[in-house]
Design a protein that fits this description.
The chain is of the alpha/beta class and 199 residues long. It has a single domain, classed as Uracil-DNA glycosylase-like domain (Uracil-DNA Glycosylase, subunit E), CATH 3.40.470.10. The chain is 43% helix and 13% strand. The protein has a six-stranded mixed beta sheet, with helices on both faces. α1 packs antiparallel against α4. The protein starts with a helix and ends in a 5-residue tail after the last helix. The structure holds iron/sulfur cluster (SF4).
Length: 199
Amino acid sequence: MSKDLKLDTLREEASDCQACKLATTRNRVVFGEGNPDAKIFFIGEGPGRQEDDTGRPFIGRAGELLTRIIENGIGIPRSQVYIANIVKCRPTVDMKMEKDRAPDKEEVAACTHFLESQIDIIKPKVIVTLGGPSTKFVLRTEEGITKIRGKQGEYRGIPVIPTLHPSYVLRNGGDKSPLKRDVWEDIKKAMAIAGIPIP
Ligand code: SF4
């Protein structure tokens, strides 16, 4: 079976998943998107409002920053990487769905088999985790993201570079934030592992 077909089958399975309570508040399952042969796999924590509305990952303000990092920094179209989250439905604080939160342990436990299968199918050269929750899951660590960012780890033999979540950068100075330099340093490490020339 081709990678495309395997991912389509998995996407279909996720589309009506009821395995955790997020199924009761979501509008859309946000499976993930990108190149099945991607060298770099970006992993965030969960969909926000715009992602829940559209079914696409990282399309809000944080997504715009990630897209700039990929297209202006790495120098490849966003469609050439793969982007997904550790949970596929939007975690919110209440049924009104006004405020996002990090996924809880039960939600992560129920959902991450989808992500693990995506990684198994795509077999990227490097994984970049964005923020604390995805880093904790992928690297099985309790260390905070500000301490662990940039330190290479491993997931089932695949190198992992943890970095800050774009929304954290936006909350701490946005485009003028010195944190952007930290993220870029981490991204350059991922590019070197993936064999992508650094400009
Ligand atoms: S978050 Fe994951 S496990 Fe929970 S309902 Fe959505 S797809 Fe299923």
